[in-house]
């Protein structure tokens, strides 16, 4: 990604410090990577912006890079019993658009273990869509990805929830959320929406690619 000198963490592990007075902070740690200095510009519960001077395995001379540290997130692909994928259409203030997305949300507990991350995924599924796992359902972990590693360490954990059903409680959306629509789409409709640039959310595009690569969602055009 173009911008300031590159800061990448391809093989580094991420650990998150506890929140301090409502401020969010985290550090990148690895034996081959060394942070020489760090200047904080901004921090709140969800975001920390710093400029670090870092030594990397490929560049021992320290380089400065401005980084946005963000909490990790979960992204859930809900699949109904008849194979439809449930998407939400949500207003996003930074881009001033309403776009189709998979349900997702941040992981507030910085020390979450895999079971707690799954719990967050199921909670976000119900809160944003009003769906839950059916009695015979399963939540399948699909790994994680970095949303934009040129400027942030944010990672998103992918999950497939199948089959899902409407919950008796319905959705329980946060006050700040503006979800305009929620409905199921066939794999052919998903393919068309991606092809015609109707789906533009990176989380959704990434998890669709992962599902297709694993043979869990067919995105091949019919001939």
Tell me about this structure.
With 223 residues, this protein is an alpha+beta fold. It has two domains: 58 residues, no CATH class; 141 residues, Nucleoside Triphosphate Pyrophosphohydrolase (Alpha-Beta Complex), CATH 3.90.79.10. Helix content is 17%, strand content 44%. The strands form four sheets. It has a four-stranded mixed sheet, sandwiched between helices. A three-stranded antiparallel sheet has the order 3-4-5, with no helix packed on it. Strands 8-7-12 form a three-stranded antiparallel sheet. The chain is globular. The protein starts with 12 loop residues before the first strand and ends in a 10-residue tail after the last helix. The N terminus is likely disordered.
Concise description?
By secondary structure, this protein is of the alpha+beta class. It has 3 helices and 12 strands, in the order E-E-E-E-E-E-E-E-E-H-E-E-E-H-H. The strands form 4 sheets. Strands 9-6-11-10 form a 4-stranded mixed sheet, with helices on both faces.
């Amino acid at each position: 990604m173009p911008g300031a000198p590159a800061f990448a963490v391809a093989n580094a592990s991420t650990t998150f410090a506890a929140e301090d007075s409502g401020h969010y902070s985290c550090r990148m740690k690895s034996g081959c990577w060394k942070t020489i200095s760090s200047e904080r510009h901004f921090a709140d519960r969800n975001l920390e912006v710093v400029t670090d001077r870092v030594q990397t395995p490929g560049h021992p001379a320290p380089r400065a890079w401005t980084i946005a540290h963000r909490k990790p997130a979960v992204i859930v692909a809900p699949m109904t019993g008849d194979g439809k994928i449930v998407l939400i259409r949500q207003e996003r203030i930074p881009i001033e658009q309403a776009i189709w997305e998979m349900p997702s949300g941040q992981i507030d507990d910085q020390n979450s273990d895999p079971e707690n991350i799954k719990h967050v995924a199921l909670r976000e599924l119900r809160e944003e869509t009003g769906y839950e796992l059916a009695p015979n359902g399963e939540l399948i972990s699909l790994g994680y990805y970095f949303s934009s590693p040129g400027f942030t360490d944010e990672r998103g954990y992918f999950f497939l929830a199948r089959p899902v059903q409407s919950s008796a409680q319905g959705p329980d959306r946060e006050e700040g959320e503006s979800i305009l629509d929620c409905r199921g789409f066939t794999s052919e409709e998903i393919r068309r929406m991606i092809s015609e640039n109707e789906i533009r959310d990176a989380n959704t595009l990434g998890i669709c690619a992962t599902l297709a690569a694993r043979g869990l969602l067919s995105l091949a055009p019919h001939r």
